[in-house]
Amino acid sequence: MEARICSRSSRRDVEEETGDGALNGLPVAFRLALPEHTQEYEQDSEWCVIDDGSGWRELRIHDYDKVFRVPGLYEKLIHEVLQCQSPAVVSELLVKQLVSEGVDLSCVRVLDVGAGNGLVAEELRKRGIGKVVGVDIIAEAAEAAERDRPGTYEDYHVVDLEVLGADGAADMMADEGFDALIAVAALGFGDMQPGAFSVAFHMVREDGLVALTIRNDFLSDSDTSGFAALIRSLVSSGRLEALRELTYQHRLTTTRQPVYYHAIVARKRCPRA
User: Fold this and answer.
1) How far apart are CA 112 and CA 10, in angstroms?
2) What domain range includes position 103?
3) pTM (two decimals)
């Protein structure tokens, strides 16, 4: 799998080198090209071009359904080339809090919201978390998780959380409540609405933990995604008690600029009277 740099006008002239690799024993092969470093794009407008044997085609990086259809592309592009650290960083932050409380990690049941192809669950399981349940609105994400990381999840639900909450089915999925919720790079950009996160939050038991990461912009007063207002409301009402916070480099943009995110681990509390 080779990474190359190109512009929209020159992408057909990318040097065509093939690369081969393996993902959990599955053969993967494609060619990958990125924009020139001089180009600038909003994070949700970033793109690449790939050739997986059917010719070069352009992919918007946030079109996750298309990205997940290509085995190994997400890992190569996001985690190797763009050096994404969020799954490991946020998983470690959550596990550190659990360990500090003397919790038996093997008994912990975590809801992974915006689960994608299972990278976060893999990090949690490596650190000793016993059970992870995935939720994503994209069917291709669940298919990729089963293809690339079979057995990582206790269960995986392809569902719109807002619909799930309206139907009352969220309580059935949560059973007695999850011990923790984790949402890594799933908030903002329209990938998940604040209402969907609220449903997931409701599925965590009282005194459970919430671990999330979000781009710094989405926590500012100028935020229009609704997440800054939601998080401020949860904190001011006493529903969330912040325990650990960290600002860190989430990944690089396709033009090699750092993107900073804010990670939070908080405790879910009963609302103040």
Assistant:
1) 40
2) 86-268
3) 0.83
